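RETRY 2/3 - previous attempt timed out on the joint model. Re-submitting the same 270-residue input unchanged.
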Amino acid sequence: MSHRLSILGPRGDSLSVVAAGDHGPPLILLHGFPLDHRLWQNQMDYFSQRFRVIAPELRGFGQSTLDEPPYRIQDLADDIERIRCHLASNQSIVLCGLSMGGYVAFEYWRLYGAQLKGLVLTNTKPDADDDLARQARLAMAERAIQAGAWSAVEGMLPKLLSEHALQHLPEVVAWTQAMMKAVPAQTVAAAQYAMANRRDFRTLLSEIHVPTLVVTGDRDPIAPPQATQQWSEQIAHSQFVAIPDCGHLCPLEAPQEFNRVLRGFLTQLE
Ligand code: MLT
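RETRY 2/3 succeeded.
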């Protein structure tokens, strides 16, 4: 059973967290854009038997507030540390971030690496945006403000889910759309600005010494398998897995395979 709690953020904002499992080591799951904690529904059920599973909602997503945009990705890493101090003080964590959540996980490693027992980087990348990607983000932010959030994000669906999921997994499609439709325009804009200005971690990969699992889907157009395997090899203690027939949302599209891979990694850490 999961429960929701709210933690006071640095400027009086509210950081909403959904947690499941009342014992075991902490496992923190960070969702991607434009999603919320529901991305992890299958992992919350599965891992809460043996872990304290903690799924924060990033600023403006789900029930977290967005009080003073703009923010930087490193501010979100500070939020995660605040949540760790409240819910898992004196304990090291396994931090798992998907896509935008992965960008936050990289920043968390840079700022608070000593708190990490393990790192899971799923469907994500260490690169900063190039000029073209930055322009596309600014255009999406503008569109969200002018025409509404859904108009800005609806075109992302075929990039988030594989053709297989779009054709054969109606529940996954409905669940993804429900999350996408819940995101307010200001949240879309603020997240796009933050991602457009994120740090480039490619030159820092060799400095990551925490055990790291890197996962992607072999149909993920945002974090393609070949490029993902290449950068993962620069992390000393890393394992790489590409999940077959899967797009950008591996935990939702292929929960059994994702959970099997993550469980294997967590077992090794123990
Ligand atoms: C995500 O899934 O979080 C986004 O696709 C990340 C991005 O836009 O770079």
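Residues 32-33, 99-100, 195, 222, 248 surround D-malate (CB under 6 Å). Closing ticket.
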